[in-house]
Amino acid sequence: QIFNQHNAETPNLEQAFHRMAQMEPNLDHDMSWFLLPSYWAKMVVALISFLCFANSYDGDFVFDDSEAIINNKDLRAETPLGDLWYHDFWGSKLSSNTSHKSYRPLTVLTFRMNYLFAGGFYPVGFHVINIILHCTISVLMVDVFSILLGGLQFSNKGRRLNLAPKSSLLAALLFAVHPVHTECVAGIVGRADLLCALFFLLSFLGYCKAFRENKEGHTFSVFWVLVSVVLGAIAMLCKEQGITILGLNAVFDALVINKINLLELIRKLLYKDKSLENAGLLRKGLLFRITLLMCGGACILYIRWRIMGTGPPAFTEVDNPASFADSLFVRAINYNYYYSLNAWLLLCPWWLCFDWSMGCIPLIKSVSDWRIIALAALWFCLIGLICQALCSEDSHKRRILTLGLGFLIIPFLPASNLFFRVGFVVAERVIYLPSIGYCILFTYGFSLLSKQAKKKKILAVAVLGILLINVMRCALRSSQWRSEEQLFRSALSVCPLNAKVHYNVGKNLADKGNQSAAIKYYREAVRLNPKYVHAMNNLGNILKERNELHEAEELLSLAVQIQPDFAAAWMNLGIVQNSLRRFEEAEQSYWTAIKHRKKYPDCYYNLGRLYADLNRHIDALNAWRNATVLKPEHSLAWNNMIILLDNTGNLAQAEAVGREALELIPNDHSLMFSLANVLGKSQKYKESETLFLKAIKANPNAASYHGNLAVLYHRWGNLDLAKKHYEVSLKLDPMAPGTKENYNLLRRKLEQLQKKG
């Protein structure tokens, strides 16, 4: 009865195909689960996947979103589209020594389209696209799982038969509601994984279409094989894992299309059996198709290698401490422990964290560490599954277990540290694709239990309970990803030893103005990781603002000692030394910062302030000019140039600089104010008045703006207007320097005029 939805009007030949398919072992036979028509199954999966993550639609830009989106110049219209192909995911040049070599131009292109269509950085559009992508992928999973669990068979009309409708629905639901996917869906940068997964699945389905006309197993479509290679290349241009689909297509071809028994094949290869062709390698075009896949993969990798260069990504020890261990034993043990943690996140996705680095997972350094048990458990399970996949006499069981292990392991290989060092310890986003394999194995295990269980409905209720718990966990985790404060605080209980978690909580508090609380978290971050230079730098900055200069100097000096090329810490150290009136040391620190970061406008600005304090006016003007060349919108540098030229009596030059600045930053009220002062001194009263009024309109609560406009009117002879703005200024700031004296002078003058009148 399963197939009635497909063949209400099919001829006897198609019914024969159905009967042949039902003679194969079927996962659905003893499974107590819902049987829905294909269309309704997909609708249910789409709806439930939407409900899991819908509450993330109006979240903020959080964590890595700032660097990948807000600070990424590749999203701006002024950046040529061609640059996307030579920049990494974060907008840096691939040729740069600091590039992480994350080459995902198509993902960045979708961010750029979001930005342009929305007219700015509005996160709602970004989040909505991510949710739609996950729903689409979950729907495609129904078709993918029907092939992986039920096999690939077509009717005489070329329509693919769903031989496992119950199993494919269960597996797709498990995938749709898995909480480990929250980072990919609710975190905007997770779009790389979503797009990669989308084209990964389309590549697989395209490869399956190559056998649509293959009723006797002797023909296939080269066109669809090539389409699957192209879709695999597109997947890789979204994220690096995409290339692994070519290997999985080859595995699928061997196991499902050619029905190869891997153990038998290995034996024949070892003993050089002459009947090797009977194993299926030379039949049905398998070698030709694998050659196409290998050539396509090699071309893709070569092109990427040429674009990104030969240099390895630049990572630090805190990103992935195990990869920096001197001992091969320590590296191997910890890598395997990381694998066991990833497996545990798939099995029990309760403890989730946005970042697992910086002491969150201490290194295993000896076999006496109790965590070795996790490695043993992982390999015990894997070896057991591999033995069953190779040695079972049940060909159906061999096929499903091998495909499940293949989809679990192969997409994870780029993140395994086996081929190259990666920049993380554990990352939930990288198990988005491997979770396909987990869903296959879970569904197969459920079908086996269903065969043995006497009360199948209780088992089905238990699985429904797991799905419901996962839906609730997804909704909760999505709400935590809505803001940085919730996200960072949620990690404190999961990774209390993670210095980066404490650093991010502190940074979030500092951004909100809560410096006292921020200091506490920054100190804890430095305690957990005494070499955490960014925490030292930020803590030093806060202490500098609180005038605790000596401790700030100690922290910043330690930071540059640990990381001598840390330009920001050198600049902040210079500011502290300047405040301590150690001018020569401050100047040296500023120049060291500029040495390590050539284009550093803020450092030139602070250097100019130092020179101004030392009355080295020419040097100060040159430093501020450099700041404005590097950053034309650097309002403070422009302002200081105008003020310095004004104070030294160079009114004509000050006016020229002010006009130049306003052409570049026409809406900056502080520049209007400074230029208005210069014009007033030059007796250009009307133009000065216009600028003062524009500045006041932009910032009506600035007492100095009203006070200086009053002085202008006072000089100009508009005494009533002068009185009005003096009074406004004093109302806004009763202690405004000079304003009260000028106001009293004006009142006396007005009284004298009244007496004369």
TrEMBL record:
Q: Which GO terms describe its biological process?
A: endoplasmic reticulum unfolded protein response
Q: Which domain of life is it from?
A: Eukaryota
Name the source organism.
Polioptila caerulea
Task: Give the main EC class.
Answer: transferase
Q: What is this protein called?
A: dolichyl-phosphate-mannose--protein mannosyltransferase
Q: Do the record's keywords include Hydrolase?
A: no
| Signal peptide region | none
Q: In which pathway does it act?
A: Protein modification; protein glycosylation
Annotated membrane-spanning segments are 33-54, 131-151, 188-208, 220-237, 243-266, 286-305, 372-391, 403-424, 430-449, 458-476
